[in-house]
């Protein structure tokens, strides 16, 4: 079992920054990928960014150059640094952790990010 807990959401003005954190616990040795999805009202959930255990990263086109995902293996934590935020970045951001030895990812409870114009 892997548990993930997010923190760091909130309200920010357009152009501002926020950093989200996602702490994993439990059977962490088998985690191979962690990342963030977001869902805005009335829209489909989309992958924002992901990072592998080897440090490879992927980003949605809409956030490239503005968001950075990183991980601190010593703290079993993944961070999403969000800069130059736009109102369209508003949504519930959910962290996930995928294990190479388990078919179902573990999800956090989600954290609200609201960007005002």
Order of helices and strands: EEEEEEEEEEE
- Assign an overall shape: globular
Q: Supply the helix-strand structural class.
A: mainly beta
- N/C terminus separation: 40 Å
- Quickly count the helices: 0
Low-pLDDT residue spans: none
Tell me the number of strands: 11
Question: How would you summarize this macromolecular structure in one to three sentences?
Answer:
By secondary structure, this protein is mostly beta strands. The chain has strands at residues 2-7, 10-13, 18-26, 31-39, 46-52, 57-59, 67-72, 77-82, 91-99, 106-107, 111-116.
Structure explained in plain terms:
The chain has 117 residues and is mainly β. The chain is built from no helices and 11 strands. The strands form 2 sheets. Strands 2, 4, 5, 6, 9, 10 and 11 form a 7-stranded mixed sheet that branches. Strands 1-3-8-7 form a 4-stranded antiparallel sheet, with no helix packed on it. A hairpin with a 6-residue loop joins β9 and β10. The N and C termini lie far apart (40 Å). The model has no long low-confidence stretch (mean pLDDT 94).
């Amino acid at each position: 079992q892997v548990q993930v807990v997010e923190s760091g959401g909130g309200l920010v003005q357009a152009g501002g920054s926020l950093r989200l954190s996602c702490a994993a616990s439990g059977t962490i040795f088998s985690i191979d990928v962690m990342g963030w999805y977001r869902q805005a009202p009335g829209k489909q959930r989309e992958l924002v960014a992901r990072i592998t255990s080897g440090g490879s990263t992927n980003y949605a086109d809409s956030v490239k150059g503005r968001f950075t995902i990183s991980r601190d293996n010593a703290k079993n934590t993944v961070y999403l640094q969000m800069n130059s935020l736009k109102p369209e970045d508003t949504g519930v951001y959910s962290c996930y952790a995928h294990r190479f030895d388990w078919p179902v990812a573990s999800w956090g409870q989600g954290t609200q990010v609201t960007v005002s114009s």
